[in-house]
Design brief:
441 residues; mainly alpha; two-stranded antiparallel ribbon; globular
Length: 441
């Protein structure tokens, strides 16, 4: 094991790597609960989504550790799951089976791009300023979903949206948000998970002693009761994807958006983690980047097969690096720790919407970091980045933010004479964007 992961060369040891793996797992395990909570809005059962989330997270992370030998954990991505549930299934009316097929095919394309290094050309064509805007916009989108799930933000005929009433439900959410925020600010390990657990306990009286249970159970007035702790994994959505139906012309924009978002998240994570731990090669690029991208695309492929939205690399992996983790052993340890939770579906299914809402709001905080990197004093950069940032939450669609960001970038650069900022590959992407406007929502 020491020779395989080359502990000596990386100036580490087994104890350090295991501790780093546990730390990384604690900062990412919130996805076990949050991902099924978001995706069950599509009609897929929570228990089956829990199983899919855990299997994808475990297998992808272990493969990252063994094949790419990087201390990076993978799991279904935040933002991509919201796009899957609220834009593709709810907004466009696409059945979840067909949406899973789109995830699968985006993974296949991603895999081919990674193997043949075509991804390099695509990445160079995507303006860095747009990447920052899209990342921050997805953060705002996730935060909006969190506030909506808590009933803190509601629809309003006069003002479109407004603050919800201050009642037992929203007050419980605010207390949970306050507690989770303090834990995060104090850098407590597993802060998000602790926040979810504490908010769940605070929500127990709702529907029993006061308030309406439907407000915390995704519209279901029936009280959620604990029916046990352990159960066999639910494989009911395994291999239920629609391979053929997801290959229609109307689905191409969806596949492209899954592909773009996944690739963007992955590259951003690899660069960030590499900088945090000085995990770079002799050229200054992230270490084993090709192998890492292959693993990431593999994670997306099995996501479609197992029954969840696309897997991606998690920036929370940096917490394990801060603990001294430097090799793939970190990812292997974290991946193994996911597996026992596959048997805890009855326990985890009692967690209400308002318990995961604080975590969603704070994920938005984490994803707003790139805003400071936008060139706000250069309007030809700032305007397209801002349009991406603001249109994602306002249109409730990641696709729309990406489309208008790309198109506005091209037009502004064209009419300001900055032709060097418009590459042939960017024109190809613009064509896909126009196609998405024509065929999609």
């Amino acid at each position: 094991m020491q020779q395989f992961f080359d502990f000596k060369k990386n100036n580490t040891n087994l104890k350090t790597e295991v501790i780093a793996g546990v730390t990384t797992f604690l900062t990412t395990m919130y996805i076990i609960i949050v991902n099924p909570a978001i995706l069950q809005n599509t009609g897929m059962p929570f228990s089956a989504l829990l199983t899919a989330t855990i299997l994808v997270s475990a297998f992808s992370s272990i493969m990252m550790g063994i094949y790419a030998k990087n201390p990076i954990v993978l799991a279904p991505g935040m933002g991509i799951n919201a796009f899957f549930a609220f834009t593709v299934v709810a907004g466009m009316g696409i059945p979840w089976e067909k949406a899973l097929g789109a995830v699968f095919w985006s993974g296949i394309v991603f895999l081919l791009l990674s193997i043949f290094n075509i991804r390099t050309q695509i990445l160079k064509a995507i303006p860095r300023q747009l990447r920052y805007g899209v990342a921050a916009g997805i953060g705002l989108f996730i935060t909006l979903i969190g506030f909506k799930n808590a009933g803190f933000v509601v629809s309003d005929n006069a003002t479109m949206i407004s603050r919800g009433p201050l009642n037992t439900i929203t007050l419980t959410f605010l207390v949970g948000l306050g507690i989770t925020s303090i834990l995060v600010a104090k850098r407590v390990k597993g802060a998000m998970v602790l926040g979810i657990a504490l908010t769940t306990l605070l929500a127990i009286p709702i529907g029993r002693l006061w308030g309406d249970a439907s407000a915390i159970n995704f519209g279901n007035a029936e009280l959620v009761t604990l029916k046990g702790i352990f159960s066999a994994p639910d494989f009911s959505i395994l291999l239920q994807l629609d391979f053929i139906g997801s290959l229609t012309m109307a689905m191409f924009p969806v596949i492209f958006t899954f592909l773009f978002t996944d690739m963007f998240d992955s590259i951003s994570t690899f660069v960030g983690v590499a900088e945090a731990g000085n995990l770079v090669d002799e050229y200054g690029d992230p270490r084993n980047i090709k192998q890492s991208m292959i693993v990431d695309s593999f994670g997306t492929v099995i996501s479609g097969l197992f029954g969840t939205s696309s897997a991606t690399s998690y920036i929370e992996s940096a917490t394990g690096i801060e603990e001294g983790g430097r090799t793939g052993m970190v990812a292997v340890v974290a991946g193994i720790l996911f597996l026992p939770f596959m048997f805890l579906s009855p326990l985890l299914s009692i967690i209400p919407a308002i318990a995961t809402a604080p975590a969603l709001v704070l994920v938005g905080v984490f994803m707003m970091k790139p805003v400071v990197l936008i060139h706000w004093d250069k309007f030809d950069d700032a305007i397209p980045a801002f349009l991406s940032l603001i249109l994602i939450p306002l249109t409730f669609s990641i696709t729309q933010g990406i489309i208008w960001g790309f198109l506005s970038w091209t037009l502004i650069k064209l009419f300001t004479g900055k032709y060097k900022d418009i590459t042939p590959m960017l024109i190809v992407i613009d064509c896909f964007a126009i196609l998405a406007l024509t065929l999609g929502k």
